[in-house]
Every structure is written in structure tokens, then in C-alpha cells.
Known about the structure:
This protein is an all-alpha fold. It has one domain (2-452). The protein is built from 22 helices and no strands. The chain starts with a helix and ends with a helix.
Amino acid sequence: MIEGQLALAMFVVVCGVLLLGFPVALTLGGTALGFAALGILLGHFDPDYLSALTARIFGTMGNETLVAVPLFILMGVVLERARIAEDLLANMAGLFGARPGGLGVAVIVVGALLAASTGIVGATVVTMGVLALPTMLKAGYSPQLAAGTICATGTLGQIIPPSIALVLLGDIMSSAYQQAQLRMNIINTDTVSVGDLFVGAMVPGVLLVMLYLGYLLLRALLQPGSAPPAAVDKTDVRSAALAVLPPLGLIMLVLGSILIGAATPTEAAGVGATGALLLALCRGALSLSVLQDISRSTLYTTSMVFLILIGAAVFSLVFRGFGGDAMIESFFEELGGGPQRALLVVMLVMFLLGFILDFIEITFVVVPVVGPILLTMGFDPIWLGVMIAVNLQTSFLTPPFGFALFYLRGVAPESVSTRAIYSGVLPFVLIQLLLLVLMWWWPNLVLWLPGVLGR
């Protein structure tokens, strides 16, 4: 009884300390070790659990799947520094901008391409905020619609492969799936890979882009003043194709090699990083100073992610040492209503946590605990992984701590109020929730493509 209370208190303290602004990795590891020490003093925590900590950390750092993280980060940073987004936006705006809602369509299309090539929310939101927001405001777009479109488009990198979020989530789902099979006494365990999640997320990712486009065009039709035609220089199809084909070719090379099974996500990430460097070199954007900047940015982001991984490993170990996973499993058994109600509760909790935590924190704190329990109930691991990914995508848009909101606030002109940014993202959050409902009722939106490819 006391162990369960300590496990619950540990989770609450972590959320509270994070709200105070302390670093995520140090908060997770420090809080867990503090509660472990308290549990040992009270005689309610077995110190032998901590002996497994070294093996867990070495297992994390030696995980071949996670090697894809720094490589995809490198790929995204290189493409950002090569200013490919500027060419894409200028050419897409020239193709669509003269039509009602056309400039918004161009922003969503370019954002989707950037999402599939960089996968870094901050980079996409800041880049589009600097390049597209002033143009949209000058064209007469409502500040709410312009801000909401840019923020929501920036988060597409969380669901459209190759996504760093899917790499991290895929590694955790693989471990959770193996734990679930062992709980069901299935000794020869199957695995679910990051590549499986990439394949499963393809159709939902494209559908989300279509839903964004549908909302924008409907808004332009019903409220023409909110998304009027823009006075932009027209672009011929040839120029647009020359701007789109290089990043599109790189995307197809990376994803295609994964889809046909020619490369693992880690190997494909290496191909993508090399291809991005070659694109930047061909554009003459790869000087020594730029390479140094790219290296520092990649190292900083990678170090942050892996430090959080280590902190999360400490937290989950201590949480299990207090019997927290057994307490949650018992809660679901007593909840009643079967697996569907249990999943609904988990999804609701994750959505609400997204208001105060970001996707990394939820991924490494919540998913390792609830994942094995839900998979034991019979849910498909690919479907569940993509459902969680879409749910966590909302954490970038939900106030008060949505990171996409902060990124845009940092580059938006003073004429765009914080309230306009917050209200502008609300329809897009509802669209993401609509996608969740669609995937719930039609699981084949996720499972059809993996089935076709024999995943």
C-alpha cells in the first residue's frame, strides 16, 4: 500500500518539478533516486533494483535502433541550414498563392515536405514563422488562421516518417510488446520495429495533411476575408519542380529503402544524412563555419535526447521497484468496461498530460508503464503506437506549454497576439483528435499498408 503511494507521489512530484522549469533529464533521474533513497530508509524499496541501473544505461547507449536519432537530427539540421525551405515556399506560393486560401495551402504543402525531411518541430515552426507569417499577414490572412496553420503544420514532423518521435516511441513499443508476450507466456516473442511504425504512420500522416488542407479551403470558402488571394510572383511548373524534386527525392530514398526492406531505419538515416550533406554541398551552402554550426546543433539536440533517455530509465526502474506498474494494472482490472475503456482512459490521460508535459516526457514516463498492459489486452502494437504518436502530437499545440506556440511566439511580429496564436491552433487540435477517432473506428487506416507490405 505504501509502495503504491510512493510511486504515485513520485509521478506527481516529477510533474510539479517540471512545471517549475527544471531540466527534464535531471528531474526524472533526480526525483527517482530521491524517492529510492526515501523508500530504502522506510524499508519499502529493495536496493537490489538499483543494481540493474548500470545495465539499463549501457543498454540504452548501445541500442542500435537509437543510432538513427542523431542521424535523423543531422539530416534535418543540414536541410534547414541549406535554406531549402525558402525555395520551396517561394515556388509553392507562386503556384497556389493567387487563389483563395492558396497561400495557406502552400504553407501546409511545404510544411509536410519539411516534416518528412527534417522531423524537427522547432526548426519547421521557426522557419515557416519567419518566412511565411509576414507574407500571410500582408496578404490579409487573419492572424488566428495564419498562426494556427504554421504551428499545426510544424507538428507534422511528429507523425510523418521519418520522425524522431516515432524512432523513440518505436523502441519503447518494441520493449513493451516483448514484455506483453512474456506476460502471456509466449516464449518465442515476435517484435515490432521502428520501421513498422513508419509504415503504419504513412496513411494517417497523409490523411492529416488532407484534413488540414480541407479545413483551410473550407475556411477560405465560408470566410473569404480570413484567407484572401495573395499578390505573389507566379511560378512556372518547371521552377517549382526543380525546387521540390531534390528534397522529395531524398525523402523517397530514405522512406523507400525502409518500406521495401532494403535498409533498417538506422541505415536509412545514414543514407538520409549523407544525401542531405550532398544537397547542401550542391547548393554551395556547406562552408566550414556552417559545418561547425551543424555539428554543434546536432550534438546539443542528441545529447539532450539521450540524457532524457537515461533519466527516464532511472525513473521507470524505481517506479517498478515501488510496484507502480502492478498498481496501474490492478487499476485497469478494477476499472471495468474491458480493453476499450482502458485505452480510452490512457488516451485521455496522455492528452491532458500534454498540456503540461512534452512528448518526450510522456513517451519515456507513461508509455513504458501502460504499454505492456494495453498490449496484453490484445491491441495491435503498430496501431497502438501510431495512436499514441498522434495523441502526443497534440502536446505541441495545447496551451500553456505547447512548444510550437512558444516557437512561433518567439518569431511572430507584435501585431500577432499570444491569444491569437492560442485560439488559432484550437481547430487544428480538434482535427488531430478527429484523426484519432477515425483511426479508432477504422484501424485499417494504420494497418492496411503494413499488411500490404507484409509487416
